[in-house]
Sequence to fold (383 residues):
Amino acid sequence: MTPDGRWLYAGLLTRPHGMSDFGAQHGFIAEFDLEAGAKTREFPVEIDPWDIAATDARKLVISSGAGQFAHAVSYDAVTGELRTRFQTAAFQPVLLHPAGDRVLFLSAHTAGAYATEYPVDPDTGALGEARGFGNLTVQPPFLYSPDGGSLVSYSGFVFPRWLWARRVMWSRRPSSRKGPSGPSCSTPRNDRSATRAPGETSHLFHARTFEWIGSVALPHEPRDLGRLGTRLFATSVAATVTRLHELPNPALGSEGNQAPVARLEVAAGERLTRRPVVFDGSGSTDDQTAFSALLYRWDADGDGAYDTPWTNTVSITRQYLLPGTYRVGMEVRDEWGETAQAQQTVVIAEAIDAGVIRPSTSPGCCRLRRRTSRSIRCAPGSG
Fold:
């Protein structure tokens, strides 16, 4: 899909992919106008299409899915003309830089991946001279950070394709995959939500906090997902039929959402050992989420790790057995997964008991006992 969400390109095979296939390669590219919701054309390509990077100007860079040392090509999708053909390894993911002026080929090996960058002529789609990046320490898949300044690795997950959108980031995870439920990625500059779609359910996550927000049922297991404005689309493949589905957007309503304001106060009262100390987060607010819908979690011992799950518990009570300085942390979350933190520190003094007078076994003497285990001897006759 082009970065502006207008055009979708799909590779059509004339035979299955195969590493042992060293014959001449042929395939087709299908073009879809997502604004019109229609397939516009097909054109032949001299390659077994494996992965496609497409610019807004409809210039395509395609890697091969046959052989081992194969070719990659670039095409002008407007005219269907071949622009560049060069030898490289097969089965390489192709990443388009956010600036749209270069692509990155990633060739995986046992210890990581070899990355090679090619400039893309914005007018013709022809590729310039390659620039190698050398070995990367982890294997694909990778993603450019939104500003194009770094590569983000998803090593350990099986995500064949990632698409960044204005408010959501879609991905697909095969339903047979067992593993963590959220992606590990850097924060988009302007994006607020991340979506992954394992099997036939799409899950919405916040792209910075990775907090789960909600889910949407899908009609079929998606092959690729993307967006056009606020409209979301998924493609699915069954036998020889490719379907394009429009999905409900679970992120609608999050536009302009701001992080909550976390306020944590210590209730008035004695700050002494063995006395209850109340930490109250009820002053926290959010611009869109009602107070009753805010969720909280607590770091009761101040070690930086949260000791409770997300609940609507707005305050906690602590008692301290020893005098000292103690810290409690709180995090508040709104309905769109935005979070904010607050901390409070209290100084606890030792509670000194007034003590009780008990009769002494010695004539004319008493002993004043304090619960602090100290004792005071009284002179005879002091009563």
